[in-house]
């Protein structure tokens, strides 16, 4: 059994981009398929995709949904609209495109989790749709040889258990910053793993850093950056370093504190007495 070390619960949120379009959408006569694509672009916004498709003379973006690498889900064409993504199948399928070039790249975990959640959500409303890749219906390599097809296909099966059903989740008391909180825990090999979101109740900030492509956890009353200091703050830093011999790393740690500038100025004032 693999160890669960990241937040696995995806809260579905569809972002609206208010995309430009050239003409009106047509309603599908029915829905029997979901077809998966990749953008063939390492970095592209939903607005980029829409513009590329407008330049082809289309009414607008060809896909119904666009899933970015950071796990955000964007609406393309309305879900009920005929797409422009798979020849011969547009009038009976929902098209989902994933940001990335998966002939060479590997899909990030956040994007994969969002894609799974979106597929499950669609199937919960339409029933057991046929899940296909673009290459299954047209002559193309899309969505790429590195697209995690087996994982997505297995997760979408009607009898497939969700990840939360494969492990036992218990509520346990956990000490966070010296206080007791009730957290959802997974116990494996006598080791307790808590969901990162559980840290929020103790004041930690838990977000996904889209630049570094990593989960980000910030302690209470701390900042994720070192602010640019005023001349007064820089003078205080110089005093503290000269008198106390503190290294740059220690000063940086102090300045990440929410009131770090005031703390450094008070330390400097005390040292000058």
Structure description:
The protein is α/β, with parallel strands linked by helices. It contains eight helices and eleven strands. The protein is 29% helix and 21% strand. A hairpin with a 2-residue loop joins strand 7 (169-176) and strand 8. The protein has three domains: 14-163, Lysozyme-like (3-Layer(aba) Sandwich), CATH 3.40.80; 168-216, no CATH class; 231-272, no CATH class. The strands form three sheets. It has a six-stranded mixed beta sheet. Strands 7-8-9 form a three-stranded antiparallel beta sheet, with no helix packed on it. Strands 10-11 form a two-stranded antiparallel sheet.
Secondary structure elements and pairings:
Blueprint: E1 14-15, E2 33-38, H1 46-55, E3 65-67, E4 73-75, E5 93-98, H2 109-126, E6 130-133, H3 134-137, H4 149-156, H5 163-166, E7 169-176, E8 179-188, E9 191-194, E10 205-209, E11 214-218, H6 231-244, H7 248-256, H8 260-272
Parallel strand pairs: 1-4, 2-5, 2-6, 3-5
Antiparallel strand pairs: 3-4, 7-8, 8-9, 10-11
Helix pairs in contact: 6-8, 7-8
Annotation field: number of helices: 8
List the helices and strands in order: EEHEEEHEHHHEEEEEHHH
> What is the radius of gyration computed over CA atoms, rounded to a whole number of angstroms?
25 Å
**What would the CATH topology of the largest domain be?**
Lysozyme-like
């Amino acid at each position: 059994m693999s160890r669960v070390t990241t937040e696995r619960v995806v809260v579905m949120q569809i972002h609206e981009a208010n995309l430009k379009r050239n003409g009106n959408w047509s309603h599908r006569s029915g829905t029997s398929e979901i077809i998966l694509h990749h953008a063939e672009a390492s970095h592209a916004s939903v607005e980029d995709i829409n513009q590329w498709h407008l330049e082809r003379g289309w009414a607008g973006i060809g896909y119904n949904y666009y899933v970015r690498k950071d796990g955000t889900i964007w609406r393309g064409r309305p879900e009920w609209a005929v797409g422009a993504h798979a020849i011969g199948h547009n009038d009976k399928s929902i098209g989902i495109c994933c940001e990335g070039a998966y002939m060479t790249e590997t899909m990030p975990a956040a994007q994969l989790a969002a894609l799974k959640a979106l597929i499950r959500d669609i199937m919960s409303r339409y029933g057991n749709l046929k899940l296909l890749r673009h290459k299954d219906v047209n002559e193309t390599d899309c969505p790429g040889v590195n697209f995690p097809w087996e994982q997505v296909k297995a997760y979408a099966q009607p009898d497939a258990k969700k990840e939360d059903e494969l492990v036992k989740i218990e509520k346990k008391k956990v000490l966070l910053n010296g206080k007791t909180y009730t957290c959802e825990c997974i116990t494996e090999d006598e080791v307790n793993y808590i969901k990162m979101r559980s840290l929020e109740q103790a004041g930690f900030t838990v977000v996904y850093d889209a630049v570094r492509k990593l989960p980000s956890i910030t302690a209470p009353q701390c900042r994720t950056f070192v602010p640019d200091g005023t001349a007064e703050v820089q003078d205080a830093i110089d005093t503290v370093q000269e008198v106390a011999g503190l290294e740059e790393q220690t000063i940086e740690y102090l300045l990440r504190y929410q009131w770090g500038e005031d703390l450094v100025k008070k330390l400097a004032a005390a040292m000058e007495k």
